[in-house]
Specification:
The chain is an alpha+beta fold. About 40% of the residues lie in helices and about 30% in strands.
Length: about 60
């Protein structure tokens, strides 16, 4: 994470064409022990809300 000491988090974003649209997949690989810390921040809930909002905006524009 930006501004944090220690090994970096590796993010792999994949866009896959599927029938009727595009599937976005994000794989986040955390250093040992960091996953629980990050989950404790509420980041997962914020990301889920952001992706739901993005989906809504994309579908509205289509």
């Amino acid at each position: 994470m930006t501004g944090q000491d220690g090994p970096p988090v590796v993010n792999e974003l994949t866009l896959t064409e599927v029938e009727g649209g595009t599937l976005l997949s994000l794989l986040m690989t955390f250093p040992e022990g960091a996953r629980e810390t990050v989950l404790g921040t509420g980041m997962a809930d914020g990301m889920e809300a952001s992706y739901a909002r993005l989906e809504s905006e994309v579908l509205t524009a289509a």
